[in-house]
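ok so heres the complex, two chains, lmk if somethin looks off
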Amino acid sequence: MYGKSSPMSEALKHAVLIVGAIIVILPFYVMLSYSMKSPHEIDTNTGGFFGDQEPMLDEWCVKAKTPSGAVASKELIQSCTKTPIIFNYVGAFDKAPLLRYLLNGVFVTASIFLIQVLIALPCAYALAKLRFWGRDAVFMLVLFCLLIPVHAIALPLYIMLSKVGLINSYAALIIPWTISVFGIFLMRQFFMTVPDDLIDAARIDGMSEFSIVWKVMLPCAVPALMAFAIFSVVAHWNDYFWPRIAVTSDRNYFTPPLGLRMFKGDSDGDVYGPMMATATIIVTPLIVAFLLAQRKFIEGITLSGMK
Amino acid sequence: MTDRAAVIEQTPNQGAPLIAAKSRIQWISYLFCLPAITLMFIILLVPIFVAAVLSFSDYSLGNQSLNWIGSKNYEVIFGRSSYQKMLWATTAYVLIVVPVSIGLGLGAALLINSLKRFSDFYKAIYFLPVMAALLAMALVWDLALHPTVGYVNQNLRLGCGTMVETILSFGWLPFVDGAQSWYSTSCADEFPLWIGDRDYALATICFIGIWQAFGFNMVLYLAGLTGVPRELYHAAAIDGVKNGWDRFRLVTWPMLGPTTVFVVTITAIRSFQVFDTVEALTQGGPAKSTYVMMYAIFEKAIRENLVGFGSAVTIVFLGFVLIITFTQRYIVEKRVHY
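and the predicted structre for the whole thing:
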């Protein structure tokens, strides 16, 4: 902005921004703090940020390892006594197959991105660099499809997928996202800036159009592709709406947000700790990646603004 | 490759190989576009058609045939009170979240942009909610806003009877009766149940939506601000524009016009799609006060298998989104700058 600001107004600005920052941070603070506290500390709001980490008895562990009717042995009680932080984070993986959910999430997110690129890149190349009859029509189609919000096609897609018996499968989680018109549009705009000479040179060298796409254009497009990757991965790792619809019952296909949601179903106070631990585990990878590469991430996410 | 050689050998004139190469390019282009076009049709266009058709039926999964019921589904949406509540809740959500998250985003962008130091620090913090899975954070907010063990109410209660109450009850302002303020009456009685209270539920869902969205708007505005030429501020200063508000009103805000149109559109479309927070926290309740369209589609069509009706809601939703999009296009073409 223009003008000089006095130290006074500078301090005032910081004060306002800090209050905002506290509100923004608050749930992250609660999440992290509760993921380390014992149920008692959560109930009574004691223990500060880290909790006292006093060893506690994991009754769930005792129950699970004692045959019904039998009295728990002393060693068992000892082995089931843990500090709250261990209780919560081990509980996150024990009470629900979180590891499976995380792997599902990685698999689905990675598959979606790879297929999107596989489909979008040749099309974007053709639209940007090849002359063919109907090219404008195809591009118009892409622009038209950009207007369609995915939330509007979720229900009919669900019906179509259940008609072919694909609900509760990886396919159901992946198929709707295989086409990214936004990806086509983005890559086309980027390819337009690649000089024609480069492609002509590749042709003279005897490269087929197919290998031009993957060996010449793809390496050129790495920056745009990175932004698109961030956009795609963040959107699908965090997505809850579509998985909630596509996976109705089979827990084997749960993605991390679905797994986390299950904690809320059985809301006895004991699970708050493990639930917050699960939330922390799900949220942390992207947050850490963001903090490490802020500029790239902001670029990638705001791309979605064009969507 | 051998085909081409054969073509050249057979035809002595110069144009033929070029034509052959051109038609080969044609075929390759179609080959390259074919998967994308096919998927666009199957995944994006056909479903809209399917939804439009089903919206005039009372179809449920498992039905053998389509039973046409005309526009009855639409009449229910616009005629029955529980669905009028749905339209109202959705509209109210959009009308609250859009201006507030844009206002906060713009405010944060202006403040951060004018800072000498630490601007990256605030930018990173304000952007954190955009990165985090909304469902996870919704559940955290749910816990933080829990009526008894929640962090928010516990700390609000701690403030009762202390200086915090004195400040927040605004009794120190002239003509304000502190004892009647929200904070003091809540202290005397009880703090709200937030998402369990029909008077607060929608506002709380809106709050989470704003919390999540404003960092995104801030980043878009920061990008917009870099595009405002400094000369304009100099020119304004020469013309006698002295205070910051006039500078904003006469230079910054008009120059941010295109950004604003864009931010309003995207925030509005996203707000219409609100689902995660409602599904996880309120399930449309209490008393349908947070019964938004996406949740209605989910509940009716997928939970209760009223596919025909859900399709009609989907089409209404699509209508809303397209109206916003076309309005944006119209404004952009008419006047990008004021």
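quick notes: DSSP finds 17 helices and two strands in chain A. thats all i got rn
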